[in-house]
Specification:
Length: about 200
């Protein structure tokens, strides 16, 4: 397989969730260290890639104000991250999408490079980040060539990421040396904890 470069990858920030554990709030727009939570993610990944899009299902104008294309899920009933993956596959013009969530504001500086290297080294279909103890399923490098596979999976009513992954050759990218960076803000308590304990980047 021909090695891929950064130009072959579109970074997709997933902000299309319902925020159930946050009382239905749009997590990407929550204030965190004096700016929107997603702004921290954008600042980190924009140092790694110029090809970025945001997957959102609410407050589209506010997300568009960050200066990147905003794509919605094909469905309107919040079907989870795989729906965001699929919409990104349809919208991207690169061969691969690299996903990450809007609620994990501490991004490693070499996230894109390490995921890309793992793909080049392994020859796998999909690369998923691992913190050394568990897979981090929404941190993934996925070829757009799997678009039909994902469309079929979703049309069958399936939503589980790990089940779809199990249908393909998946390799892990090892981030065990920075495992604390995979802390996600899912509740207000998480937000307070990270605000108190961690720097913004």
């Amino acid at each position: 397989m021909k090695p891929i470069s950064n130009e072959d990858i579109t970074v997709v920030i997933l902000a299309g969730g319902k925020g159930r554990r946050m009382g239905g709030k749009d997590k990407g727009l929550l204030n965190f260290k004096d700016s929107a939570l997603i702004q921290h993610v954008i600042e980190a990944v924009s140092r790694q890639s110029r090809q970025i899009m945001i997957n959102a299902n609410r407050n589209l104008d506010q997300y568009a104000a960050f200066g990147y294309p905003v794509i919605q899920d094909q469905s309107t009933d919040f079907q989870g991250p795989l729906a965001g993956f699929y919409s990104a596959m349809l919208a991207a013009t690169t061969d691969y999408i690299l996903t990450l969530p809007c609620d994990g504001p501490i991004i490693v500086d070499d996230y894109l490079a390490k995921m890309r290297q793992a793909l080049n080294d392994s020859g796998a279909d999909i690369i998923v980040a691992s913190d050394g103890e568990r897979m981090q399923p929404v941190y993934a490098l996925i070829p757009r060539a799997l678009q039909s596979s994902l469309a079929e999976f979703l049309s069958a009513g399936e939503r589980k990421i790990d089940i779809w992954y199990s249908r393909h050759n998946v390799a892990l990218a090892d981030f065990s040396d920075v495992r604390e960076r995979f802390f996600n803000i899912n509740t207000q308590a998480d937000q307070r904890r990270l605000d108190d304990e961690r720097p913004a980047s």
